[in-house]
Design goal:
41% helix
């Protein structure tokens, strides 16, 4: 009886261990089997803060897939984008982020993402249309630049300064002329009539 009990216990432990091993294999090999059979779920794509972005601002594309994803790839208009691929080194991440710090006019377009598990790749996600609004001329200048360019008070102040400097120059020139005339008159009065000194004697060369 004891022998039968021990045999049953050992058999149950062996079965439990076998079931655990099989379950682990299913969990590990499941994505690979699905990939080979073409059952990879389709990824999703979104944009933060949105799909309509002003020129010169930032946007981030977010691609999502299952935890077993090894590499995410972003595509633009059906071709690989210039942004680097994102590798899922931890093996537990379900999303990848593709940031663009400053969008330009040519950044606009249709984006989608795919992912890879082993040698298999998923179907492309649905397309996300990125719209870029405005342009370089629509960017608001900094407060300093705006004040310098558009403040009429500052412009009037500069004009008044120029006028004051001009008037000061004219007055200074007039003073110089008056002083020169006064000096010339004084010299003439000291010499008297041409060719004669003040004492009435004739000048000699």
């Amino acid at each position: 009886m004891v022998s039968s009990f021990c045999t049953n216990t050992v058999g149950e432990d062996t079965m439990t261990t076998t079931l655990k091993v099989l379950l682990g294999l299913v969990l590990c090999l499941g994505p690979t089997i699905q990939a080979r059979q073409g059952y990879l779920p389709r990824p999703s794509i979104s944009a933060e803060p949105g799909s309509v972005i002003p020129w010169g601002t930032s946007v981030t594309f977010v691609c999502q897939g299952p935890p077993e994803v090894e590499v995410f790839l972003l595509e633009k208009d059906g071709k690989p984008d210039s942004l680097p691929d994102v590798k899922n080194s931890s093996g537990i991440e379900t999303e990848a982020r593709f940031p663009i710090s400053s969008v330009k006019t040519d950044t606009a377009g249709r984006y989608n993402c795919i992912y890879f598990i082993g040698n298999a790749n998923s179907e492309p996600s649905e397309f996300l249309e990125l719209v870029v609004t405005g342009g370089p001329s629509d960017i608001s200048p900094s407060p300093t630049e705006a004040g310098f360019q558009t403040d009429p008070t500052l412009q009037n102040y500069k004009v008044r300064n120029c006028v004051h400097l001009g008037l000061a120059g004219v007055v200074l020139l007039m003073l110089l002329v008056i002083l020169a005339e006064a000096w010339h008159s004084q010299c003439r009065s000291q010499r008297g009539p041409t060719g004669w000194r003040q004492d009435g004697t004739s000048q000699r060369d």
